[in-house]
Input
Amino acid sequence: MGGFELKIMSYNLRRHSATAELARLIERYPVDALTLQEGDGVRMPTEIGDLKLASATYKSELGLAIYYRPERFTALDSHAFALRKAMHDRMLLPGIERLLTTHLVDTETGQDVQLASFHASPLSATNMLRRRQIKSALTHLDALNTDAPTLMAGDFNYPVLRNKLIRQVESAGYSLSLSDGPTYFYTKSIAYHFDFLTSKGLDIQLVETLPQGLSDHRPIMVTAEILKRAALQNPPEPATHTGPLFDEVD
Output
């Protein structure tokens, strides 16, 4: 059986400042889900246009959030993980979660997909530390659901020297995809890819860098096709919790 299309936007909100433009953004670029970074979980709206909040993290002002389109999906369990801490985290953000996941099920077909928002430690940490965080994040995703098509998007803070990262991601059974333009501009002429994604069980057809908004990062929009169908005839009932389920840290 063939796959079906999925559109996801990921955006670093620059300490919540770009939240105000999200409704206008998804009206212009309709998507099935949002993965957000640097949002204040306490202040995140329960709805953004036609999208509904699946889960958010609340232990830091640099929180994560996932939204989904309830006309298409049922949201099941969500999980948040702190991952390995950089010195920056230990000193300034001891409670920060850097991975948030939500399990979604298509209401018509029963196809499930695992969606994750990820935010690596900033450039004050090393690429080695970020690779460890990414490796740990992918391990958590596999432990939660090894069979579901999975997409983890966010701010990887990994602008250069990505060869080791690509090999690591591929050895874990995932693919790494960059967008068609840089997502962070130091100056008008110096720019890098900070925001990208890893995936498995998906054909990533297009990753677009969207125009600059209120954040110092540019949002990315992913068009993907799910490559397999789940053997679900009757999707399970949605979880009853109102917030994320916080799991053990690494």
